[in-house]
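# nightly structure sweep
# worker-07 picked up a monomer target from the shared queue
# config: single-sequence mode, recycle default, output format = structure tokens
# input follows
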Amino acid sequence: MTRLPVICLVVLLTACGGDDTTSITGTGGAGGAAGAGGAATGGASGSGGSAGAGGSATGCGKAAPAGGKRTLTHGGGERVYHLHLPPGYDASKPTAVVMNFHGRTAASFGEAAPLHETVSKLFSKADAAGFIVVNPQGLSESDGSQTWNAGACCSADSSRDDVGFADAILDELETLLCVDEKRIFATGLSNGGFLSHRLACERAERYAAVAPVAAFNGMASCNPSRGISMIAFNGTADKLVSYAASQSSNQAWVTRNGCNPTPTETFKKGDSHCDTYSGCKDGAEVVFCTIDDGGHTWPGGMDMSALGFGKTTQDLIANDAMWDLFQKHPLP
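# output follows
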């Protein structure tokens, strides 16, 4: 096991100081916390809101609840998520849902879930394409940082049931909204990307596809119930999540999904390119997008270079690319 220093942001350092450390063991090697926490160096191996042939939830036909901050009880305590409905939401039409998980976030930044929208800018894509976005809120560690339990990253409590919390959010939304149960997706940055990988491993029967950003699969065991589609975004100069680990992780998904091992380059612009592995079981595909000299950032999102996270490309818009994949891969 490798012990790695917690890396604080270069601004708002007043809540970060000291020489705190974290130790995490990743799958297949030494790993570390990602996000506004430690460095991860090891690794595991149609548009619009209407749904075509998708399944719908019991909330169809009901008046929509107000968007914004919502609470529910899970695991004996109160948990929080933030709900965003597109302006054209129609309670008679089954609508896709994207769960968008924040990264490990220092307490000095305030509540992580709404901050994550500033970073990812996913609401504007949701408004244009007509899907629902949910930004769940993680729990706080002893240092105040807000995290998820996603294997190698990043909660110190390995028993925390964040997968169950995500289930509980979807269960509630399916009673309140006209959710297309065949078009539920997950994405997230850093620690939230790690959780997206975990959901692909453990909830492939519920999530149609996932799109982790600046992350890799940190689960010691991963046995999805079917071939599941994925698009992953990683920068070669990410100082918190090793690009080599992300490559290893994505190749493991290619093998796990039984894909053709020879990819086709399906996107190239400026500093970014994407390789697509097709021929996977159950009609799935794996897309691995690389940003040359890219940092620990959301492609097309907030420029976080001044915060010490490296370059944010604008040559590749992650929100557009993931939605393209999501539309092609509903649950069978």
